[in-house]
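Sample entry (399 residues):
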Amino acid sequence: MKNLIKKIAGKNKFFSKLVYIGFRICSLLFSLLFLLMRVFPIKQNKVVGSNMKGKRYGDNPKYVFDSIMKKDPSVDLVWLLNDTNNEDVPSNVRIAKNSILSQVYELATAKVWIDSNAKQHGFLKRKGQTYIQTWHGSYGLKKVGKDLPNPSRIDLDNVFYNFNRVDLTVSNSKRTSEIFRTAFDYQGELIECGSPRNDIFFAEADTYIDKVKKFFNVEGKRIVLYAPTFRNDFRLSDYNIDFDRLKESLAKKFGGEWVVLIRLHPYNLAQAKDFIKYSDTVLNATDYDIMQELLVASDILITDYSSCMFDFVTTGKTCFLYADDIDKYKKERDCYFELEDLPFPLARNNDELNSIIELYDQEKYSVDLKALFKQVGLSESGCASDQVADFIISKVKGN
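Predicted structure, serialized as tokens:
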């Protein structure tokens, strides 16, 4: 509904003004709630995390929470969720409803906030509170902030409002840091320690591989993960891979028996169930909360414009791109890289997908991947979660 309103507003100047006025009124009311909550004291030991505006327990903040739990179990960890029955949340993390009043109370009384998405415009940070922004992409492909071709006034206001109040951002490369500085006008403290969520690629993989294969009942099989990003109009017509043909191509090139896990973007969560007719070798993985576990367990990734491509290849694994709407997408969103310039073999249709798999050259791919890492100034080390956790613990301990 939110995106539909924005789309209509973009075509009608009068309606656009009304939407913006409504946005500012909501922002003012949100600020007033934060002011009212100041009757409650800040809890020095309390840290509040969030991801995808309450949709999931995951992304970078989850891995920071994992590290905090190991380093100092006494820290009061709270996670904002729309669904408070999420079974993936550890027992020593308190779940709070991501409703307006609950969210404002938890944030207004926490010493530290950590989020991977922009918060709602109008929040008020109190003196002594710390806001950490990890963002939700690596050295991303999709343009963001003021780098977008036609950014809405509301989106720009919101992202600038957030980054003007952030105390620390976490980056995994010089390229990412540059994007934060230019696209978000961020001038605060920044550490290039890697993405906390990508520490998982430096850990023992067998545990996650076994967990994912058992969950989907695909033990003994090889996994190709198909994880496209969303489109502005939420269309699914561009996700038109012939999965049976794909499995045959992979078996012929790489050997083994293959299954496809399909993981649509969280914005397409409601559409995933009826996306296609699934089978015992083509499975719906959209409801699986922890994306990084799917990436670790998969042998090959196929995506289009999602930054998960840059996460997946952290340790050199094979990624293919399938995008049949490149020209249209560039007009809608635009990209920091040309797809053709990336190390990942690119297909625009199923015939090309079959061809790039058949002609795949591992040696060339590895060389091109190393060149990309050098180009962006990659700083993944497997220690990002610990570094951010140490920063947070120092804050709650009053150091």
